[in-house]
Each structure stands twice: as C-alpha cells, then as structure tokens.
Design brief:
GH; Immunoglobulin-like; eleven-stranded mixed β-sheet; alpha/beta; TIM Barrel
Length: 564
C-alpha cells in the first residue's frame, strides 16, 4: 500500500534534522547527486511539442482552453502538429477525423482554394504565441486516385483499419497537388508574414510506411519532391522535411527511412530533375507497447527508446544529414490516442500517475540517447491533446478531460521551469539510458533525476517509475545538490502523486460522477493544477551544497525548484 509521506527535509549549514523511519522499516536511501557546475548541454525544451488527430478540436471550447494553458507554462514557443489539414469536408470534429475543405474543384476541374478553416486553426496557435508544424496532408477528395469512399465514422472498438479511405491515396495529378501546396504557403506568408512562417516547419503526411499512405514508397518520395519544391518556391527560406515514418525498430521502417534519405541526398528529384531534394528537418515516430499482465498494466518504455535510438543511428550514418534538427513527430507510450480505456484496457495508465512518471523518465532518456548518437534532437511531439464532449476520464491519451487537467500535464509544467543548461546527475541504482532502452524497467524501480541550472534558478526533477503498475512502498530518496550560489534562496518542492496534482483521484473520491456539478468541476480544475508538496522554504547552502530527503511514492514525480 502507499504509505503516508514524510515531509521534505533540508540539510544545510545551520540545520541538522532527523527523518522519522517509515512504518515499513528503514530502507536504504536512493542517493541522487546533482552537480550544477558540470554542464552537459543546453536544456533544450524538447518537450514543448504537442499534436493530435482531430484539427477541428483546436478552436473548440476545451481545445482553446488547453492550448492557452500549454502556452502559459512554456517560456518558449510551443510547436503544434495536427492531421487532416487538407482533408475535404465540412469541418465537423470527430474521433480520428478532421477536415478543412481547403481544396475543391469546380465543374470544369479548376482548383478552388478556401483557407477559412485552416486559418481558424493556425490563428488559434498564433494568438497564443504557438507555432505550427504544418502537416501537408491528407489528400483532398478531388485529387485522390480513389475518391470514394472518402470519410470514415470510426469509434473506439471499431476496426482500426477501416479508417484508411480516399484521403490516404496518392494524387491523380502531382502538379495540381504541388500548386495546392504552393498556394497554401504563399497564403500563409501573406496572412502571417515572412518572418513568422520562416519559424514554422512544413512536413509531408503521416506514417507513410503503414496504411496512412495507400501508395508505394516511390510514390511517397515523388510526392515529397513535389511538396518540398512547392514550399521552397513559395518561400525559399521555409523549413521542410520528412519522412514521418513510424517504428524505426521495424525492418520495414528502416527500409523506408534509408530509401528516403538516399533519395534526398543523391537521388534524381521527380519535380526538378536535379540531384537531391530540399530537407531542413528530419521527422519520424517512436512508440511504446503497454499490455495487461496478471490484471495490471505493464508498460514497455524500452520499445519506445529502441525506436528513438534506431532512428538516431540511421540519421547519424548520413554525414550530410547528421546535424539537421530532428523532430520526433509522435513520441508516446503507445500508438492510438483515441482508443479509450473502456475498450482497450491496456491503456488504463492514462488517467493517473503512471502516465506522468513514464513521461518524466522517458523524456530524460531522449536527451541522453540523442547525445550518445551525436544527433540534433530538436523536439519530441507528445501526441496527446483533448477529446471534446467525451465522458469524464474515459481513458483517452489526452492531457485534459472536459477542460480539467490530468496528472500528466503537470509534468510539462515542471519541464517549463527547467531552464538554462542540463547538468550532471548521478545515482546509486543500476539504471541508465542504455539499460532502460535494452531491458525497459522490469526489475528495480527506476528512481532517477534530470537537472538544470540557469542564471537565477536550478531545478531537479525526480521520478519513481516502474513498467508494472502495482502497489509498492514509498522510496526514500536523498537528493544532494552542489554548485548552488552561496546566498539565501527559496526552495519550492512540487509533487505529482496520488494526493497531489491529481484530478483523477479527486474525481474518484467524488464517486466518479458522470456529470459533475459546477462546484465539483471547480474542485477538479483546482486539483488538476501543479501543487506544492510543502510550503516554500528559505535555505542557505553551505559551500554551495544542500540536501533534500523525501519519501517518493511509486509513479510519483517531484520537482525541486531553487530560485535566487
């Protein structure tokens, strides 16, 4: 069972405190040693990237609320990626579906462009200081080589393969497709300005190595050439890339990646006839694989990290591509955001703290994997947003439910406080990024940390993660920090666990109401915010050192934020 937490204690020059032994008997503390003077690399905000299938949720009530919150806790512009920005339809929002009607044709087959809904989506981002990763796709009905049937009406529990209809096919006219792309980029420059659009990323399609693309690999490469050429003709300084394949751990995915990279570096361009294709950013996806084991959820972080690492390895093998920025276009514990817990019980990790601890532990390893391969990881998109007008806590892979933040969103609030440089962290357990990549977390818990330091602050994120979501005793964790300035400073200790920053547990304590009252919603909204474990404390480090000892529950995450 989870045991009552003891309060965080500080050990420094003038204070000598004792920690009461927890009731299950004194454990050997996990020692996490942070050296703020040992800089590893800049603390890139690789977490400030989000995405979702349903673009029309963007400007709906809860979508706008969530985007506002995300923008507010990030000190850097957040990038947002959404599917279906060129899909034909009336703009109705539905699961795994969206449309903008950007392209239709008149009776004579002439193009008709309508940017109304696309603008509504991008305006919502720009108003909040966010930036699009403009996904060029999917195929408008008038251009599809198989236009009917075109729209699906998928719901959780239906066959996933039923969604890949006319929107997933190649164009019947590549030049008309290229003109559509050209007009879109040109319109964006006219509406938002050259400088703004230069800061965006344009990328083609989604997961073309599986059923999202009903053409061949060569047809995708041809489409990329026409797309990249059109983007650059409209704005030569625009940033464009691909191939947005999924699962580099699979043989098929590696074949796709290498074929694409071979083509853009030395192949004959389908659109221009020249050698090579424009590429400014590399994109691919990496997913984990949870399952049910003896009635509980067992995650598989190792599968996701192996996907990441194999992609990094492939990119690093191309000298002209190795230093290009990489965006992991979807980087998640598994593949289907809209597959709810009620029909996919292996997804029961999503409402509670397992999702938040997984996120903390996995993002920390993304930095290390990229560093080890010598590649330039710019961002990792959490394919997780919100699902409008759905049952409370239904178990979608989302950041909020009915406008109430879930525990996982608070990890990103923690990341938003980590600035400056990433610094050295050591601990006395066996897990490092290689062990998690190769074995996942199946033995001891992964109790570890990520730390940063800026001119006026330092932050240490600590997690207690395990792939198996089963009860376990709290861990005694001793965080030793050196390299602090020799001056009085404030320490804030934030926590995500069963009792803190956890709207899901509060909702369950209410009896899991299907229609919470207005007062209950206010309570849930408050519970969904990031909360302090203890009151802020003034500390005075001795010789730049201080120690914080805590009881950290399984799947819990703490952030120690020092400000001076």
């Amino acid at each position: 069972m989870f045991l009552k937490k003891t309060k965080s204690l500080l050990f420094h020059a003038a204070v000598c405190s004792a920690l009461a032994a927890p009731s299950f008997g004194q454990q050997t503390p996990v020692n996490i040693d942070v050296n703020l003077n040992t800089v590893k690399a800049p603390m890139k905000p690789i977490w400030a990237f989000f995405g979702y299938d349903e673009p029309n949720y963007t400007y709906m009530k809860d979508g706008k609320k969530l985007l506002t919150e995300i923008a507010q806790f990030s000190k850097v512009p957040v990038y947002v990626r959404a599917h279906s920005l060129l899909v034909t339809g009336d703009g109705e929002a539905a699961l795994k579906w969206g449309s903008t009607n950007a392209y239709t044709e008149d009776a004579q087959g002439n193009p008709v462009y309508d940017w109304t809904i696309v603008d509504k989506i991008f305006d919502t981002y720009i108003e909040r200081g966010m930036k699009p990763i403009a996904q060029v796709g999917f195929m408008p009905q008038a251009l599809s080589t198989k236009p009917d049937p075109y729209r699906h009406h998928w719901k959780p529990g239906d066959d996933y393969n039923d969604i890949y209809l006319g929107w997933a096919y190649p164009p019947k006219d590549y030049k008309k497709w290229a003109e559509l792309v050209y007009q879109w980029v040109k319109h964006s420059v006219e509406r938002y300005g050259k400088k703004e659009v230069e800061s965006w990323y344009w990328e083609l399609w989604n997961e073309p190595n599986i059923s999202y693309w009903k053409g061949t690999m060569e047809e995708y490469i041809k489409l990329y050439d026409y797309t990249a050429d059109a983007v650059k003709r409209a704005l030569p300084t625009a940033k464009v890339g691909g191939p947005e394949v999924t699962g580099p751990g699979w043989d098929k995915s590696r074949v796709w990646m290498r074929a694409f990279f071979d083509h853009v570096t030395k192949g004959k361009n389908y659109a221009t006839g020249k050698i090579g294709s424009p590429i400014d950013v590399i994109t691919y996806h990496a997913k984990g694989a949870p399952k049910l084991v003896d009635g509980h959820v067992q995650m598989n972080m190792g599968t996701q990290l192996r996907d990441l690492d194999k992609g990094f390895e492939i990119v690093a093998s191309y000298p002209t591509l190795k230093k290009l920025p990489i965006i992991i276009g979807e980087s998640d514990p598994e593949g289907c955001a809209a597959c709810s817990e009620d029909v996919s019980p292996q997804n029961a990790y999503r409402n509670g703290t397992m999702y938040s601890s997984y996120t903390a532990a996995s993002f920390a390893r993304k930095y290390e994997l990229a560093e080890a391969r010598g590649v330039n990881l710019l961002g990792a998109v959490s394919w997780s947003f919100e699902f409008e007008d759905q049952a409370w806590f239904r178990g979608f892979r989302d950041l909020a439910t009915n406008g109430v933040d879930k525990p996982v969103l608070n990890v990103f609030r923690m990341f938003g406080m980590m600035e400056g440089n990433r610094v050295d962290v050591k601990q006395n357990l066996a897990y490092d990024y290689k062990k998690v990549r190769d074995e996942s977390v199946r033995g001891e818990a992964d109790i570890n940390g990520l730390a940063s330091k800026s001119q006026t602050s330092a932050a240490v994120m600590v997690w207690n993660y395990h792939d198996d979501n089963v009860p376990a005793p709290d861990a005694t964790v001793k965080v030793s920090v050196q390299g602090l300035p020799q001056q009085k400073m404030m320490l804030y200790h934030y926590r995500i666990d069963k009792e803190n920053s956890n709207s899901y547990e509060v909702w369950k304590s209410m009896g899991s109401p299907k229609q919470p009252s207005a007062e209950q919603i206010r309570q849930l909204e408050k519970a969904g915010q990031l909360q302090l474990l203890t009151s802020p404390e003034w500390i005075m480090p001795k010789d730049g050192k201080t120690v914080v000892e805590m009881q950290l529950p399984r799947q819990g995450v703490s952030l120690l934020h020092f400000k001076w």
